[in-house]
């Protein structure tokens, strides 16, 4: 008899988990609290580790078709437009950039029809014998396993990990947008106290993000978010002002950057936390969504390879906590360094003085342990023992 999982959350991590479960012969119900299934946000990049995980899910080719190569890590600039490092024409790049909705769509189209229930906000999770029951607005469902992929403000984490501290404000805030401007090559502009990221995301669209320090969270500029980010970057080089100008005011997103303190475990009986629900991290290494896709592959490979759900969840927890928590620590440090006014001059001088071949080697596909990660294999139902 086929086993069934309940996946809480229909974002990238939740859909990746559902797709992985399907590949090993499980059934799944995906509970999404939003009335309409769509991925919020603007853009993202994915590194080689995430692309290998997407390959294992069987959607790597579709994802590469939806992504656009970006040279953001090879084109580093200062606000006056000078290059600290510059990618050469034809240079290979390890990174693909996406409109967030495009990657979400790739996963959603691969998930079987009828698996996703929208308008289903979870209100309770309880173990009943060898099953887990999840109550949500409009009904309840039981299964052999719950995968909680419901984000940084996870309801499941709050219910079952009541002692876990809430998300932590990191002293930084960000404006994001998508501009209808023909694809640039991608770049990062390092200013004192903030940086501006540009990624091409295809079909004549460009993703941009301005990240800077903030003394406190939740400071907003109602009706003036576009004007505020334009004011802060008014003297920065082209095409930064043009990108902001080309973004509709209502499409400018303003978020505060938070992460989670390390949890002692990602599992509770037959419930597993995945993605931001387990290890939300700052965006400074571009690994948030990628780590959630990795989580999905590792969790489901463990389910396929272990004799019981409990031993599979123990293996998942043992495998994933060290890697994801180390990545989160590194992202936090990177973020503070790149937005530090005190460190700005030293950092940009070191980058400018680094020989270009050495810089290119450092951003190559096999340059660091995070990117070199290899996914476990997901066996099909007919090949499992």
From TrEMBL:
Disordered: region residues: 319-341, 366-385
Domain FAD-binding: 4-329
One function term, GO molecular function aspect: monooxygenase activity
Organism from which the protein derives: Actinomadura fulvescens
Entries under Pfam families matching the protein: FAD_binding_3
The keyword Oxidoreductase appears for this protein: yes
Alphabetical keyword list: Monooxygenase, Oxidoreductase
PANTHER family: MONOOXYGENASE, PUTATIVE (AFU_ORTHOLOGUE AFUA_6G14510)-RELATED
Gene3D superfamilies xref list: FAD/NAD(P)-binding domain
InterPro entries: FAD-bd, FAD-dep_Monooxygenase_BioMet, FAD/NAD-bd_sf
Superkingdom of source: Bacteria
Protein known as: FAD-dependent monooxygenase
């Amino acid at each position: 008899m086929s086993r069934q999982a309940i996946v809480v959350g229909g974002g990238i991590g939740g859909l990746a988990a559902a797709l992985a479960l399907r590949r090993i012969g499980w059934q799944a119900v995906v509970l999404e609290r939003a009335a309409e299934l769509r991925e919020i946000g603007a853009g993202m990049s994915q590194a080689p580790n995430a692309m290998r995980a997407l390959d294992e899910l069987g959607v790597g080719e579709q994802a590469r078709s939806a992504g656009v190569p970006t040279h953001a890590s090879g084109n580093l600039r200062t606000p006056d437009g000078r290059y600290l490092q510059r990618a050469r024409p034809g240079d290979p790049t390890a990174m693909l950039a996406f409109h967030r909705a495009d990657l979400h769509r790739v996963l959603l189209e691969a998930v079987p029809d009828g698996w996703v229930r929208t308008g289903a906000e979870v209100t309770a999770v309880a173990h009943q014998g060898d099953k887990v029951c999840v109550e949500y607005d409009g009904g309840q469902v039981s299964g052999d396993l719950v995968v909680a992929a419901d984000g940084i403000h996870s309801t499941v984490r709050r219910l079952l990990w009541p002692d876990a501290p809430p998300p932590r404000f990191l002293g930084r805030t960000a404006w994001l947008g998508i501009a209808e401007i023909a694809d640039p090559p991608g770049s990062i502009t390092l200013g004192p106290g903030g940086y501006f990221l540009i990624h091409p995301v295809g079909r004549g669209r460009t993703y941009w993000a301005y990240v800077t320090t903030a003394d406190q969270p939740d400071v907003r500029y109602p009706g003036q978010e576009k004007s505020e980010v334009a004011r802060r970057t008014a003297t920065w080089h082209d095409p930064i002002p043009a990108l902001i100008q080309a973004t509709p005011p209502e499409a400018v997103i303003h978020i505060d950057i938070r992460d989670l303190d390390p949890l002692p475990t990602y599992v509770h009986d037959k419930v597993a936390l995945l993605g931001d629900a387990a290890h939300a991290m700052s965006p400074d290494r571009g690994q948030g969504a990628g780590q959630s896709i990795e989580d999905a592959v590792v969790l489901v490979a463990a389910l396929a390879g272990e004799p019981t759900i409990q031993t599979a969840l123990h293996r998942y927890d043992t495998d994933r906590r060290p890697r994801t928590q180390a990545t989160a620590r590194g992202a936090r440090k990177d973020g503070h360094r790149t937005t530090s006014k005190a460190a700005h001059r030293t950092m940009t001088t070191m980058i400018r003085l680094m020989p270009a071949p050495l810089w290119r080697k450092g951003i190559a596909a096999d340059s660091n342990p995070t990117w070199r990660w290899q996914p476990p294999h997901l066996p099909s139902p007919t090949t499992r023992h």
